[in-house]
């Protein structure tokens, strides 16, 4: 027992070093991406809330969907690379096919999210909102697909575990692209509706051409049936986050800083969960986890937990600075609630992620296909609830 305990402690020390050497830089980089998107959201939050309210219902789903779809792709590529099923090159035909497939399974959930928003009574500028989300999905998915492939393959070729860096970078790149693209399309519609519709048609043509070049077959799409059903179901579930965001948009805007760091908060919670899910999935496939309470399985969680206070504090500091530069508003003193509670929320997400990944694998369900999307979606819901609670604490509502 003493020998086993010593091995676990030694592994934990190594994992902490890896967390600070490899994962923390990627988490911090992804945080910068998220805060960049949050700056757009914070600055134009009032415009979105009053002129395009349907986007608030769709926004968490769009953010989560891209993290789900391409985070799952990164985890799948990582496993394939370790098993030798994928060449570590962007020229491998499987890369383009996988990107096109992920674009296909992204469009239907987006339409359903929009339809739910309209059905619940948010009809103002509804058709423009539909055009915005469809165009954004095609454009961002194309860019994000190749970014995901590059990050995963590059990390593998450099001898770095892709599971440690891909998930946070992919999810945050999705946030980096999502909110600014929505805002830019809003500005384009307001300036020239004809130009936006022309751009919309161009994106549809681009999608058709890429799909034809990739030669995706029906059988290959059906292989991802489980992923598609999971993604669609979780996208519908994300309306919980969207409804909360829309309902409490007033109190969130009143806190000011939370409207700026909202994407970064959701992204970081999803990052922590996705990293644990990806690592757990790989270890389960390799037979390195013998039971649910296997001590070594929790070393990754404990190591990553040590980085959470750093991420939480810098998120508030950088987000507050961006808020001050953009709006001139000062950071409220009650922001300490975020600094104090953030690490424990991240810990909860990681423990939840490990449990979900483990039990899915026991049911012969590949965590690469289901765990990443499920955890990313649930993290958005938990994160939105967390943001609402923080907003109420900060403004005294």
TrEMBL record:
Residues 60-184, 263-388 form the SLC41A/MgtE integral membrane domain. GO terms for molecular function: monoatomic cation transmembrane transporter activity. GO terms for cellular component: membrane. Keywords: Ion transport, Magnesium, Membrane, Transmembrane, Transmembrane helix, Transport. It is found in: Membrane. SUPFAM superfamilies: MgtE membrane domain-like. The chain crosses the membrane at residues 19-40, 52-71, 99-117, 129-156, 168-189, 195-214, 226-246, 252-277, 298-323, 335-361. It is a multi-pass membrane protein. Signal peptide: none annotated. Belongs to the SLC41A transporter family. This is Divalent cation transporter, MgtE-like protein. It comes from Thermococcus cleftensis (strain DSM 27260 / KACC 17922 / CL1). The lineage of its organism: Archaea, Methanobacteriati, Methanobacteriota, Thermococci, Thermococcales.
